[in-house]
Design brief:
By secondary structure, the chain is an alpha+beta fold. 56% of the residues lie in helices and 12% in strands. The chain is built from one helix and two strands; from the N terminus they run H-E-E. Strand 1 and strand 2 form a beta hairpin. The protein has a two-stranded antiparallel ribbon. The radius of gyration is 24 Å and the shape is rod-shaped.
């Protein structure tokens, strides 16, 4: 093989790996940002509720139930 062919092949492979890495990084960062915004919104809604209130949010991938001013049930895990 000619050195130019080897260099072009290596460059193309490196570019492909870098593009895949970049796309994966962008998707992961978007997921993290989306989770941060969801958490921030949930916190803001919770702060506006009076003690004793119950807030339930259901989405396709999770369900959250918050009792404002309440206590956790025995062995309670907030994630379900």
């Amino acid at each position: 093989m000619e050195p130019v062919t080897i260099a072009v092949t290596a460059g193309a492979a490196t570019t492909g790996y870098l593009l895949r890495f970049g796309v994966r990084w962008i998707k992961t960062r978007a997921d993290v940002r989306r989770a941060e915004l969801d958490q921030q919104g949930l916190s803001e809604r919770t702060r506006s509720l009076p003690p004793g209130s119950r807030l339930t949010e259901k989405t396709a991938d999770r369900e959250v139930e918050i009792v404002v001013g309440g206590s956790l049930p025995a062995g309670g895990n907030q994630e379900g």
